Amino acid sequence: MRLTPLISATLAIAVASPLFAQEWIEFASREDRFTCNFPTQPKVTETTYRSQHEADLPVRSYSASQGQSRYLVTVIDYTQAQRILTEKAKSCPAGAEPCLGGPGDEGHWKADIRGAIDYASWQLMQRDAKLTLFVWGVVDMVEGRQIQLTNNNEDTFMDIEGVVKEVHLVVPHSWIYMEVKDAKGETQMWALEATGRMGLQRIGVTADYVKPGDSVKARCHHLRDGSNGCLLGFLKAKDGTVKDWDGNNAPAPADF
Hints:
By secondary structure, the protein is mainly β. It has five helices and 17 strands. It has two domains: 3-147, no CATH class; 154-244, CATH 2.40.50.140. It has helices spanning 81-89, 97-100, 109-114, 116-124, 197-202; strands at residues 3-5, 10-15, 25-29, 34-38, 43-50, 56-66, 69-77, 101-102, 105-106, 129-139, 142-151, 157-168, 174-181, 187-194, 215-222, 229-236, 242-244. The protein is elongated, with a radius of gyration of 22 Å.
């Protein structure tokens, strides 16, 4: 997902399933001053978001669907934090420092803004999923946190086989697009997400290791939304070798 900000006074949270190789529309928001790729024209909804120091901030969410996949960008307007928390501090009990804040930082509005990304990240981590990646990241010159959550539901663990169409060994995540035949024998395009290029290089994955046209087998965690995508996992290459594309260099399972 491409996210380009034109102003830095907001917090944008982007949540998406894997992007398949195809033409999307480039959506531009005049109100929140950003551009972003979506599969269709997004639906815009307005609500509020309670910050770490309990300021109820205005929110606009931009969402779109494609099949069973859902794509969401949430923009939280922190330009209101100083006014809201300064006003709130006026009604705090005497001596209640966690509520009052300090001179020039009434209601802790500065801490609220500075900690906005970490607080939003923490809330995402409360989902019923295993945290498998939490790092600093930058995409299109936008800094933020890169978070990967793996579904805890063991029923989503699966093996699939198919023919590789595209391989993208990139940062922060690598992707393999492969054609997989379903129960009816019809070909479906699947997106397999792996760790970044440098992590794969450390375990011996190079540009020549897996190439378009290769027949491969993957063991991965199916996405919670049921779409044609999963998180690697092990991958058996054309030459029969098996590597852990999650970057942990774990030994291959005996039944794979």
